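Budget justification aside, the reviewers requested a transparent look at the raw inputs and outputs of the sequence design task funded under Objective 1. We therefore reproduce one unedited record. The lines immediately below are the C-alpha cells for a 433-residue chain.
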C-alpha cells in the first residue's frame, strides 16, 4: 500500500562532521526567534535552506543551495540508503532514558484521498503555501516529516540496532536530546524495509504542512507532465518512520495563545461560564496539576490571574451532530468549538487561518507572554493519547490544528533529499524482493 524507496541523500561534507551540531537547526515551525537569530549568524547552518530570510526567501534558499553544492559544503551520497535515526531523551521526572527508534526513507507523496498516508490534524494555510514555494524553488528537502507505521512484531528493529552501532553522526541537539544517525546500504536489507512497509498505512505524526506542500507540488508537476509514469522524482517525499507500537513514543501538549482581543476580564469570564465551570487559582503553577487526568479541563491565564475551566458535560449535546463521534469528545475539539468559536466568535472553519491564535508548547513561555500583556490570554491544554491519534486517523477525520506535539522533534540538516530528477535517478528496481 505504501511505496518507499531508499534515499540518495545529500549531507554536509565529511570535513564538517565534527561541527555537525552547529549546522543543524530546529524544524521551521518550532524554531524560536532567539534561536533563529543565533543560527542565521552561522553562514553554513541548515536554517538558510529550511527557514530562509529576505523578501524572496524561497529564491534566497535556492541561491544558497546552488552555492553550497558548487563549494561542496553539501555532497551527495553515491549509493541510496535507509538512514537509521535514534533519539535518546529523558522527560522531567523520568529516571530511565528513552530511545525513539526510526528510519528515514522516501515515500510517495500520496494525496489524502488515496488513503495511504493518514492525517490527524488540520493545517495552517499560510504555512503550507510557504512550504510549496520553497519546494518549487529548491527541489530540496532539508528535513523529514514524521510518519507512524504499525508493526507489532518489530521486525525491522534488529537491522536498525545493528546499523546504529556504526553511526555517521552522534551529537546533542538544542533540546538536550542525543541524536544518532546511521545508514543501511545493503540492497537485501533495504528490500526487507520496503516489503514490511508496502502493506501499511502511514499515520502522519508531524510535518502536516511540509507533507501537504509535497502533495501540492506533486499535483502541479503532474499537470505539467502528461506522460507521467509515477516514478519521477517529484512523486517522492522524505519521511522519518517510527513504529506506533514502540513504548518510547511521546506526545506533549501544545497550548494556545490569543492576541488582539479587547475585553473586560469579568465580562469574558461571564461568557466562558455559560459553557465552563470557572475556578480562580492561587498560583499559575497549579494549572498543570489541576487539569491533569481531568476530562475537558483546561487552564486559562489572563494577565497575572490563573483559572481552571472545566466544560459542563451536559453541554456536549450542543455540539453540531455533523461533528463525528470520534472527535467530538476530544478535549481540543471541545475547546475549539465551545471556547474559540462560541465564546470568542471564530468559527471552526476559519481558525486555521486566524492570526490571533498562536501555538506554544512551553508553559513558561505562555505564562511570561501573558503576564507581560504581550498576549490577551492563554489556554493551557493536556496531551492526547497515541490511541486517540490512531482512532482519528483511521476514521478519516481531523482534529484541530496543532493538536499533537510528538517529542522529541527531529532535526533539520542531518540529511537532505533532492527531488531534482538528475539527482534522484537510480535503478531502484534492484531493491524489489
Amino acid at each position: 500500500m505504501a511505496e518507499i524507496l531508499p534515499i540518495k541523500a545529500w549531507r554536509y561534507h565529511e570535513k564538517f562532521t565534527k561541527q555537525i551540531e552547529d549546522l543543524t537547526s530546529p524544524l521551521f515551525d518550532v524554531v524560536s526567534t532567539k534561536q533563529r537569530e543565533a543560527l542565521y549568524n552561522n553562514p553554513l547552518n541548515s536554517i538558510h535552506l529550511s527557514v530562509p530570510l529576505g523578501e524572496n526567501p524561497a529564491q534566497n534558499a535556492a541561491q544558497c543551495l546552488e552555492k553550497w553544492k558548487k563549494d561542496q559544503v553539501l555532497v551527495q551520497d553515491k549509493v541510496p540508503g535507509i538512514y537509521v535515526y535514534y533519539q535518546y531523551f529523558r522527560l522531567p521526572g523520568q529516571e530511565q532514558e528513552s530511545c525513539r527508534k526510526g528510519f528515514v526513507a522516501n515515500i510517495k507523496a500520496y494525496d489524502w484521498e488515496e488513503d495511504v498516508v493518514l492525517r490527524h490534524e488540520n493545517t495552517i494555510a499560510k504555512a503550507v503555501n510557504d512550504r510549496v514555494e520553497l519546494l518549487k524553488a529548491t527541489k530540496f528537502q532539508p528535513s523529514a516529516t514524521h510518519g507512524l507505521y504499525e508493526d507489532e512484531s518489530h521486525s525491522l528493529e534488529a537491522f536498525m540496532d545493528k546499523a546504529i552501532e556504526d553511526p555517521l553522526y552522534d551529537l546533542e541537539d538544542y533540546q538536550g536530546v542525543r541524536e544518532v544517525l546511521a545508514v543501511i546500504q545493503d540492497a537485501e536489507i533495504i528490500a526487507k524495509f520496503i516489503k514490511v512497509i508496502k502493506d501499511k498505512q502511514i499515520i502522519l505524526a508531524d510535518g502536516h504542512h511540509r507533507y501537504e506542500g509535497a502533495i501540492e507540488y506533486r499535483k502541479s508537476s503532474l499537470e505539467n507532465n502528461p506522460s507521467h509514469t509515477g516514478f519521477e522524482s517529484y512523486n517522492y517525499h522524505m519521511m522519518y518512520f517510527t513504529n506506533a507500537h514502540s513504548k518510547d513514543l511521546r506526545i506533549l501538549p501544545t497550548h494556545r495563545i490569543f492576541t488582539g482581543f479587547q475585553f473586560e476580564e469579568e465580562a469574558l469570564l461571564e461568557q466562558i461560564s455559560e459553557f465552563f465551570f470557572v475556578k480562580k487559582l492561587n498560583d499559575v503553577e497549579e494549572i498543570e496539576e489541576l487539569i491533569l487526568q481531568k476530562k475537558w479541563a483546561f487552564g486559562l491565564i489572563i494577565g497575572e490571574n490563573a483559572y481552571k475551566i472545566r466544560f459542563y458535560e451536559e453541554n456536549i449535546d450542543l455540539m453540531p451532530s455533523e461533528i463525528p463521534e470520534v472527535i467530538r469528545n476530544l478535549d481540543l475539539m471541545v475547546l475549539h468549538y465551545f471556547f474559540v468559536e462560541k465564546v470568542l466568535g471564530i468559527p471552526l472553519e476559519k481558525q486555521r487561518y486566524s492570526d490571533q491564535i498562536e501555538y506554544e508548547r512551553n508553559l513558561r513561555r505562555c505564562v511570561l507572554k501573558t503576564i507581560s500583556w504581550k498576549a490577551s490570554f492563554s489556554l493551557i491544554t493536556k496531551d492526547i493519547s497515541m490511541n486517540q491519534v490512531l482512532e482519528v486517523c483511521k476514521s478519516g477525520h481531523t482534529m484541530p490544528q496543532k493538536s499533537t506535539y510528538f517529542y522529541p522533534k527531529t532535526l533539520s540538516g542531518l540529511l537532505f533529499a533532492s527531488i531534482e530528477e538528475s539527482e534522484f535517478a537510480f535503478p531502484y528496481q534492484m531493491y524489489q524482493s
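The chain has a mean pLDDT of 90. Residues 208-223 form the longest helix (16 residues). Computational costs for records of this kind are itemized in the attached budget.
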